[in-house]
Amino acid sequence: MTNGIDVERVNGIDVLTLRGEHDLSTATDVSRRIDLALESAPGLAIDLSETTFMDSAVLRVLITAQERANERGAGFAIAVADSSGHGVHRLLTLTGLDAKLSTQPSRADAIAAAAAS
Amino acid sequence: METVSERVEIEMAAAASGVPLVRHALRGLLTGLGVPDDVIADITLAVTEACTNAVVHAYPNGGGTINVTASHLGGELEVAVRDHGGGMAPRVDTPGLGVGLPVIAAIARSVVIGSPEDGGTEVRMQFALRTAVG
């Protein structure tokens, strides 16, 4: 598989890694995995450091995830790293959501931030 | 001045699974043309948004096809995404973010949305290939 969704528990929280390309074809799966994580974990970190492509369908899922995490009082952070695809950065900048989403510059930083809350 | 041109035509079922296939085909063409990675990222994002719009909005009762045509001439790429469905009606209950068209407009040199005589909607985007956009 060139793309996938990995879920692991690290430091007591769930870490969801979006590997490869994600768009409308994977958005429902991503959303489902996020829902499962938020039901059972005190925090969620979404790792986009291995995401090579992301569009607004997936971005909407991430925004909803942040809102739901905040409602539940769960820790939440999204890792957007230098290794994330150019298009990932581009989409976040174009939509202004790089300022509104709880992003961290690395996977480790996102895990620490989500675990701390 | 380059006179050689290439054209890639793809027909996909109006389903989410077709969106990455169009992107891979387009990326293959652009990689073959030696387009820089950041320009490829921009173009594939814009075209993905246009294809997603067609999948989500054109055929509310399912079915239908979407035609994507990518034409390269000189330093420009024109990509047309055409559906034969109900057109692009504004929706306050859109399942998406509602940012697809603004994203396309920010990336493409120009975007024209038309209603062809034989029905449906066509989104025609022009991209400059030589330098990064924006």
Question: What can be said about this structure in brief?
Answer:
The complex is a heterodimer of chains A (117) and B (134). With 117 residues, chain A is α/β, with parallel strands linked by helices.
Give me the Rg of chain B, rounded. 14 Å
Task: Identify the biggest protein-protein contact and residues per side.
Answer: A-B, 19 and 24 residues
- What's the CATH class label of chain A? Alpha Beta
Sheet of most strands of chain B = 5 strands, antiparallel
Describe the structure.
- Chain A has a single domain (4-116), classed as STAS domain (Transcription Regulator spoIIAA).
- In chain A, helix 1 (24-40) links the parallel strand 2 and strand 3.
- Helices cover 50% and strands 28% of the residues of chain A.
- Chain A has helices at residues 24-40, 56-72, 86-95, 97-100, 107-116, and strands at residues 4-10, 13-22, 43-47, 51-54, 75-79, 103-104.
- In chain A, strands 1, 2, 3, 4, 5 and 6 form a 6-stranded mixed sheet that branches.
- Chain A has 5 helices and 6 strands.
- With 134 residues, chain B is α+β, with helices and mostly antiparallel strands.
- Chain B has one domain (5-128): 2-Layer Sandwich (Heat Shock Protein 90).
- In chain B, strands 1-2-3-5-4 form a 5-stranded antiparallel sheet, with helices on one face.
- In chain B, a hairpin with a 6-residue loop joins strand 4 (110-114) and strand 5 (121-128).
- The radius of gyration of chain B is 14 Å and the shape is globular.
- Chains A and B meet through helix 1, helix 2 and helix 3 of A and helix 1, helix 2 and helix 3 of B.
